[in-house]
Amino acid sequence: MSGPEHRPAPDHEPASTHRSAEPVEFQVEPHDHVEDLVGDPLHADLRLLVAGNQFMAMPDLVAGFIAGRDPTPTVFYETLPPGILVQQLRRGSLRMGTLLLPFTADVIAASPAVLAELHSDGLTDVARPYASNGLSLLVQQGNPKDVTDWRDLARPGVRVAFPDPRTEGIGQLAITALETLGGTGLRDAVLDEAVRRGDVRLTAIHHRQGPRWLLDDDTDIAVVWQTEALHHLHLGRPLAEVALAAPANPTGHYAAAVVTDAPHHDLAVSLVEHLVGPDGQRALRRHGFSPPG
């Protein structure tokens, strides 16, 4: 992005004493961030911070939420890595190149552990669990590298897109899977030795980079959520899924919480109720998410 800084004005909400003045910086070239910023952050009636892997379900969830409401609320949402969203909530703003988004979100959706920490710090209400998901390995059509499980991520010459565990929750879950199957030896072979060789690259935004790198023949394996693999196969892209067997396929859990000083508190509460209610749950099932548990 270039040109003068674009700064949407906040809704005159009070500044939280929990937030610092410095925005969190996030930019990944050549990724088009507009894919993960949906709606009008300036005038929206509701603003959501949602972990990026739910990007395919959000249009369905939002449409179901606003249906039948009078007046119809407008919704802005981000689908970025949860580590970035948490920093954004804590600091009160996000900068992407010359785009600055200074606002207080109404709802944040991330892992229960992350939200429990935010609640402990007084930044959110108690979180409500609403979905769960497993992991998959996404490969090129025909599986030319004969990938079968996590051990293939350590093979020399096999290129891997691995989510950065510092900002992406799936990265931490993938580490758990590596340790379950092969102990610390397999973990170190993938995240130390293979990284040094250049075979493993850490993604900054796995739900965009991993599949794109596969399609561009820049990687051989992308670590993804099962719902992401399902999404790309449903679109007919020349990719294939390598299913992962238990116990080396730990379950990730999703929860949502209303932000303590949400500018649109009542609508935020209604949105969380929609996620955990029957309509929201049906929408999530349509995109492959499992019930919370």
TrEMBL record:
Coiled coil: none annotated. SUPFAM superfamilies: Periplasmic binding protein-like II (SSF53850). It comes from the Bacteria. Residues 1-21 are annotated as: Disordered. GO terms for molecular function: molybdate ion binding. GO terms for biological process: molybdate ion transport. PANTHER family: MOLYBDATE-BINDING PERIPLASMIC PROTEIN, SULFATE-BINDING PROTEIN. This is ABC-type molybdate transport system substrate-binding protein. It comes from Microlunatus antarcticus. The lineage of its organism: Bacteria, Bacillati, Actinomycetota, Actinomycetes, Propionibacteriales.
